[in-house]
Write a structure and sequence with these properties.
The complex is a heterodimer of chains A (114) and B (111). By secondary structure, chain A is mainly beta. Helix content of chain A is 0%, strand content 49%. Chain A is built from no helices and eleven strands. With 111 residues, chain B is an all-beta fold. The chains are: A mainly beta (114), B mainly beta (111). At the A-B interface, strand 5, strand 9 and strand 10 of A face strand 4, strand 5, strand 9 and strand 10 of B.
């Protein structure tokens, strides 16, 4: 069964550093998403991406964040200057965009900012 | 902005007891999805509901979408230890651009 993959599984970085989180969505899916989940809390929407541009973004997704689909398969989330409060699990997800709203989630990247 | 609340936040049940979580949105939804997240895992899709008053069943799980399309519930009959996890509803207001996840209900099943 096709699955969403994410790398790395765990990233430790120092405050102020840039990080790039990588995702490979399911190949025939059209919509891609990034979510954040602080430990023990709810899943928070960051951004959706369709047709090579941002479809919608939340208030969390400020100028420190950017997304890119540099080739036909990878989907990346960049945080330019990390803060302590960026420490969380980051999930990538994708959906077909045709009919079903089912989102397929990757295993996540745990980001720890020290 | 849109808010989606779930109650209860936590529920401990004896194995074999029933369990229900309730989801309420501040705005009318076009669709609602339910996800299960095991400890240390990622959300896994369970079901979607799109019609007012819709009821769907999956074995011991029963999902309902309210008539006003602002609330939903998930009921598990005769819980098992494999049901342990956090259950999230996620509401969409149209299209695929965004869903808002609920606050989640963490279920513990005592054997």
């Amino acid at each position: 069964e096709p699955e969403v993959t994410q790398t790395p599984s765990h990233q430790v970085t120092q405050m102020g550093q840039e990080v790039i989180l990588r995702c490979v969505p399911i190949s025939n899916h059209l919509y891609f998403y990034w979510y954040r989940q602080i430990l023990g809390q709810k899943v928070e929407f960051l951004v959706s991406f369709y047709n090579n541009e941002i479809s919608e973004k939340s208030e969390i997704f400020d100028d420190q964040f950017s997304v890119e689909r540099p080739d036909g398969s990878n989907f990346t989330l960049k945080i330019r200057s990390t803060k302590l409060e960026d420490s969380a699990m980051y999930f990538c997800a994708s959906t077909t965009g045709t009919g079903s709203y089912e989102q397929y989630f990757g295993p996540g990247t745990r980001l720890t900012v020290t | 902005g849109q808010q989606v609340m779930q109650i209860p936040q936590y529920q401990h049940v004896q194995e074999g007891e029933d369990f229900t979580t309730y989801c309420n949105s501040s705005t009318t939804l076009s669709n609602i999805q339910w996800y299960k997240q095991r400890p240390g895992g990622h959300p896994v899709f369970l079901i979607q509901l799109v019609k007012s008053g819709e009821v769907k069943k999956q074995k011991r799980l029963t999902f309902q979408f309210g008539e006003a399309k602002k609330n939903s519930s998930l009921h598990i009959t005769a819980t098992q230890t494999t049901d342990v996890g956090t259950y999230f509803c996620a509401g969409g207001t149209g299209g695929y651009q965004k869903v808002t996840f609920g606050t989640g209900t963490k279920l513990q099943v005592i054997p």
